[in-house]
């Protein structure tokens, strides 16, 4: 064998009770598991290297069901933000906006629209135009060596709409809808695992339900899933959740609700209403999962909170509207008085908005500050050309706890790695679950929490040999100390790495060894498993 972990406490990802065992790896897979007290004659496995795992939990590698590492994996071979947490697979293309499929026009617009998530991309050669091309680029990144951890991709509905019909705020024509269906099918055939939407982000938010249902029917044919950031997490949250359940059931498509929570003052203590809605749909036969991060603030771009009509025509059109005093006053009225659809129908409370990043270094003094009103927001949007990212302090701890207990729950960081002061979830989500919510506060048992972070997301992704500690499975593994594992990331110091996670392996190779990042790049693009 290549490697044996001796006397590990195995939490296998199924939710079953843990057990002590020796776990042997060979050829990038789990070759043997010999439980303590195995029948006489069953010898302990031997290997070229043996590691004493006494006191450590050995679990499947964690799957980040909502990541924004689309360019970070290509830009930074280290990618310690995720590797150090025990993440061995990230799902990209989230919130309906990413870089494939695209043509030259679309790529330019996408770079501007999501610079706050991924930077302006000027340091990355965007030489692909298709989903398959992007996945191939992940496989051959960093001089052909690959990437730090594995990555799957969702074909983004907003990007598809932008490609097919630009930034028009209207229903698609028949020809445009046909073009979108063809792009979605092509992306799924090339390896995408599903379709995400950002229904508070332009231009995806302009799509009516009939259009989304038509695209979900294509996704269903390929065995993928629909992953919406739905139309409201605020004033219309329950209606928005019900809309997603209804249209996916009509399309016969699996549903995975992105960063599913209930935010803003109107939803304090209302998580039970959401869970009752989901339980009723599940009992009726719906296929539903969801992901959350274990924090109360959200994180997005400052431009995203503006009303949808202001985005029509694309980033340059939005900047022109912001420069015009009369139009800017109209935007302010929608934000502060009526409640912008970009801000979930809730009138803006500027005290909840904290700048977490800018793209222009000359504006760095803005980071960490709360906005003191629309004039300051407008000036910053224009000066940074829509680049600022924000923390939005609008969540409720009781809602976070209630939702993470649900059997359909999985873990997702929604980690935006850009900015001088990013949300700590980017560096801390998975150890935060294990340390605070399992060990310190007992919200979840260790076995149940690991299942939420491993086998349940693997099942949603239809991965036949990942997400469990089982013989024959790919050796994507994490070893952590249950007594010390903790997130080091805080709001003041958000890039601090976690503690208590000494070893992380991707396909049997150490990406974290003895608590330090190795130079290994064993990660690859994980393509959709074809429907049998």
UniProtKB/TrEMBL annotation:
Residues 49-511 form the Amidohydrolase domain. SUPFAM superfamilies: Composite domain of metallo-dependent hydrolases, Metallo-dependent hydrolases. Pfam families: Amidohydro_3. GO terms for cellular component: cytosol. CDD domains: D-aminoacylase. One of its GO terms (molecular function) is hydrolase activity, acting on carbon-nitrogen (but not peptide) bonds, in cyclic amides. This is D-aminoacylase. It comes from Streptomyces laurentii.
